[in-house]
Predict the structure of Bifunctional NAD(P)H-hydrate repair enzyme.
Amino acid sequence: MKTRPGWTEVLTCAEMRALEQAAMDSGKITGLALMEAAGAAVARAIQGRWPLPGHATVLCGPGNNGGDGYAVAALLARAGWQLRVLGLDNMPGPDAAEMKRRWAALGPIELLTCDAFRAGADSDVYVDAIFGTGLARPPEGELAQIIALLGGLGGDRACFAQRLVAVDCPSGLCLDSGAHLGRPRAGDDRDPHARLTVTFDSPKPGHFLERGPICCGELVIADIGLRQWRECDGRALRPARLIAIWPPLAVEDCRAAIYAPPANRLAKQGGHKFANGHALIVAGPLGQGGAARLGARAALRIGAGLVTLAPPKAALIEHLGPPDALMRRGVDDDEALAAMLADPRITAVAIGPGCGVDRAGALLGAVLASNRACVLDADALTALAARGFEGLHDRCVLTPHGGEFARLFPDLDEKLNGPPALRPPRHGDAAHPDPMRHMADLHARAEAAPQALTGRHGPLYSKLDAARNAAARAGAVVLLKGPDTVIAAPDGQARIHSAHDIPWLATAGAGDVLAGIIAGLLARGLPPLEAAATGAFLHAQAARRFGPGLIADDLPGQLPGVLRDMGL
Ligand SMILES: NC(=O)C1=CN([C@@H]2O[C@H](COP(=O)(O)OP(=O)(O)OC[C@H]3O[C@@H](n4cnc5c(N)ncnc54)[C@H](OP(=O)(O)O)[C@@H]3O)[C@@H](O)[C@H]2O)[C@@H](O)CC1
Ligand SMILES: Nc1ncnc2c1ncn2[C@@H]1O[C@H](COP(=O)(O)OP(=O)(O)O)[C@@H](O)[C@H]1O
Ligand SMILES: [K+]
């Protein structure tokens, strides 16, 4: 798969383990060196934010995450910090054991118990190195109570939130799903909230999904020496099936994507407006035209060469106002729509916003039969749920919010929102005898059957799993909305866009604008996955640029500024 520069690659926990194992097996890099680099990255991040040495409490768990903790403690102590280290009396793996031994030469290790933790003096910084990517089941007993203490149970939240530094993740967070194991999926007050999370090599899905962005605080992605190895020896391992759109890093990519010459066959018409495509936005009956108009305006602003709004003839009168650039044509039934779509210059269709379920159901067949790139949103999704997926193709983009997703894919929604389905105890991914082969197998399986990959990654069924399964089943791109928007293609490729920083985007009509932006990008010839992912990013950027107080009508007008801010 071609990865464009500027996108941040995301690795599942299994992929991360396989990568580390392959690097170690190559003989070019040792586990101890990786752990030293990980510890150094965390210590550096702490010293960058607390420049004067102070008092730190480091909580070390039973595995390699704990090993990182001992490494951090040793480095901070050497830098003049006063340390208090709490750990377990188990025998960790060899690298963590070595780090523990090194720390033990510098200072004591108290047993990690609730009482000991509570009894200690107040610290400037608390380092959470209890669990990282190896969390396999909900924390229990003493460790669960300590994690709850970190969450600020008893009104201490503010006390910890500003002082908690998480190694890889706040403990208890599942780095594949972004949910806390053993806690309500929506999160509760006991989830630890870090000021800062330092992760290694690549972010994991859980940093962006569900509770992840809320609980991780500032996210630092530290190179621990795997980058160089990956670029040389590890090329074949490129696990780029999953890519996050992360606003600061996506800019270059959007520039390429939007202003690359349209890939559609009309490109040969050079600078003609048709070279930028023609988007058709289907509208609904009289009195319900606002949603489609919002979409049409967005499609124009994002650069579709022409945009036609198609309400029933009787509703044309509702659309007499601006923008004058918008064309209007009455379409009463599927025959009229099919006749209109016989014009090959129409390069994309959006149907659903304000359409009415009956009208959407009546017109859906003509949209799909035209084989055009299309966005199916709102009422078209409800109609689709009743009609079934027949006729969908790989240039369709479905844009459900959670409720529409549940109507379309009730069983997947049940898995996502029902009682958490824990995977059996660890897969032993890292212990695979041939990690190179293992990574290749993971990806070969995903090529053959994308759904085979899901459920293997983490203890919990994630929003990413759900979107991938849905896309594979529908044979279309699925964009599952929310503060974390997941976009998945039938071949298993996926993107994540995190919009936790812009809660004001959750406003009536915002989804209609998104449908219009994606339709405009499709009309311009962007492939469906790129149109959906780039659209989600630009939509969110428009909301960021406007700020609180936003209503959906404000979004299209922000798009020129968003493009300008990106230097376009
Ligand atoms: N070389 C490398 O690989 C590098 C790794 N790095 C670091 O290692 C971290 C991953 O290390 P990890 O795989 O050892 O997992 P970790 O998160 O420490 O926890 C696993 C331990 O916890 C246990 N356990 C799990 N759930 C439990 C529960 N509910 N309650 C109680 N116990 C539970 C589990 O036991 P088990 O499931 O086998 O019974 C196991 O003992 C990663 O996040 C990064 O920080 C970096 O240094 C870079 C180099
Ligand atoms: N909490 C949130 N923070 C940021 N964005 C959100 C949040 N919740 C929803 N969104 C985004 O707001 C938009 C709402 O779309 P949708 O639910 O279709 O609304 P409507 O049907 O009113 O247009 C989507 O782009 C979604 O991803
Ligand atoms: K941790």
Q: What stands out?
A: The mean pLDDT is 86.
